[in-house]
Amino acid sequence: MDKTFEHLVERLAVRHGVTAQHIRQRAERRQARLHGLLSRDAAARSVGLSLALASAEQRLSGFLAAGSRHVNGLSVADAIAAAQAEGGQQHLSTIGYWPQPREAAASVAARYREAISAVAVAGLRSSVSVKVDQMGYDRELLREVAALARQHGVRLHFDAQGLETVDRTHAMMEESLAAGTDVSATLPSRWLRSASDARRFRALGIPVRIVKGQGGDPDAPKIDPRQSYLALVEVFAGSTCEVGVATHDRRVAEPALRRLRASSTPCVLEQLRSLPRLDAVADALGVPVRAYVAFGRFGLPYAIGEVFRRPAILGWILRDALVRHRPTSTTAPRIGDGR
After folding, report:
1. What single-letter DSSP state applies at residue 187?
2. Which of 4, 43, 254, 324 is most buried (most C-beta within 10 Å)?
3. Distance between CA atoms of residues 243 and 266, nearest Å
4. Could you tell me if 305 and 233 lie in one domain?
């Protein structure tokens, strides 16, 4: 037995409040995934780093949560209140649930149903965003959620996760559509396949939310998310599909909305409620605004890689910690964003 490795594992376990077996197993899995490129010590240290980052996020969330606007509260009632505030400004909204780590699929589905019922009771013009992978791709759970959405006339938005989830997500969305559910879909411009998905959605008449997306496409690592974003907009120009322009990047949002307006395509500017917003751009063009309102587990909405690529995000995080008021119509910094 490698005593040095075991001593390291024990120290990491004590430091992070987990068992030595937990550290050991995760280190072994990482070694296997990287085909032995990491030594056992390096793999264990990387596990320790992951645990430290998770702990740091949890501690930071305690500091930010009271003033944060990324998650508007733990309960659906908090999200409804935020959506009503948006409605008071004649804005639409989408309500999304951020689950707890390893939350059961049935519990996630229950939160989606709760959100749909709350939207109906409040009489809001809101859609509810669902992630079918978080429901374990369970068709029966989705059927229950979709049936309730149909009953109340609430749109279900099928959100995009990783590339590996897309085929099953789209299949389950189209099953819901065939059953009469009002559905919409996300199209990330960083994915090569989104061009063909866009053509299919146009043919099916499915409303879309176009985002840049944070996860890249390994088959197209050099894809320009701005150019491909506008190319996706072009697919829908002149169609009857509603197009959600979901970006805080003015260099993308403004030409996209102008093109859609010029082609008489139904469109809406979609904004994360928490970030500096482009409402003024939408107002100038006569385009509605839809705010994304989240409830559930607090978490940082910025990928670490995005912070390094766009240092202004760090300023947004610090502002969220120190400023408690919700931003009104503002002009975002002229930089790209994950959406």
Report:
1. E
2. 43
3. 6
4. yes
Largest CA distance in the chain: 71
**Which contacts of 77-81 are long-range, i.e. CB under 8 A and separated by 24 or more positions?**
77/118, 78/295, 79/115, 79/118, 79/293, 79/294, 79/295, 80/118, 80/119, 80/122, 80/124
What lies within 8 Å, CB to CB, of 127 at 6+ separation is: 92, 93, 94, 95, 154, 155, 156, 157, 184
DSSP state of 133: G
Instruction: From 142, 143, 192, select the one nearest 163 (Cα to Cα).
Output: 192
Do 236 and 106 belong together in one domain? Answer: yes
Q: What are the respective helix, strand and coil percentages of the chain, to the nearest 5? A: 50, 15, 35
Does residue 270 sit in the same domain as residue 134? yes
Amino acid at 92: L
Interhelix angle 3-16/20-33, nearest 10 degrees: 110
Report yes or no: 240 and 205 within 8 Å, Cβ to Cβ. yes
- For 71-129, the pLDDT digits (tens) are 566 789 999 999 999 999 999 999 999 998 889 999 999 999 999 999 999 999 999 99
- For residue 3, count CB atoms less than 10 angstroms from its CB and return exposed for 0-12, middle for 13-18, buried for 19 or more: exposed
pTM attached to this predicted model:
0.73
Mean pLDDT of the chain: 86
What values do phi and psi take at 323, rounded to 5?
-110, 125
The tens digit of pLDDT for each residue in 14-71 reads 988 889 999 999 999 888 888 878 898 999 999 988 888 777 665 555 444 434 445 5
Radius of gyration of the chain (CA): 21
Residues 13 and 143 in one domain: no
Joined tokens for residue 329: 């119509």
Collapsed DSSP state (helix, strand, coil) of residue 248 = coil
Cα distance between residue 107 and residue 57, in whole Å: 23
Which helix or strand (DSSP H or E) is residue 46 part of?
helix 40-64
What type of residue sits at position 196? S
